[in-house]
Amino acid sequence: MNVTVVGRNVELTEAMKDHIKKVINEIEKYNLGILHSVVTIEKDKRDFFNAEIIMNIPEKGTAVVHFKDKDMYAALDKAKDKLEKLLRRYHDKIKDYRKNDRLEEIIVEESQDEIVEVPLDVEKPLSIDEAIEEYKKSGLYFMVFRDKNGEKRVIYRRKDGKLGLY
Fold first, then answer.
1. Class of domain 2-111 (CATH, top level)
2. Residues of the chain falling short of pLDDT 50
3. Alpha helices, DSSP H only, in the chain?
């Protein structure tokens, strides 16, 4: 990343430049592929320092933050905090978007599961009370059985917690 440091009405010392580089290095942790940064420190007539950070981010555009304070280091740190908040939001948005793509891929993979046939034990006729007891013991989602009249029936648990019978 290219970093340009500009001082207007102020002489930038090596300590100031090192602090600016440290601030920019902290911002790089978001891995957004920042192309170019311009850090401008300006001293106005009332001895306030204006810190401005401009960053060019691919696919996002330009991020610009300003902060004004009596202390140059404080102004720069506050501007960095604002920029971090902005970049964190953008980074999280990208991360969540990519996470949703992965979830869709997993769902597609799961929908191609292998089907395993399980034989049903419906040969022995049961009364409805016997079928309810068997169902409670089995722990299945539903149970298919033949009633005393020889008809196939299904017993299942409804959403309201009661048992349903087809």
1. alpha beta
2. none
3. 14-27, 72-111, 128-138
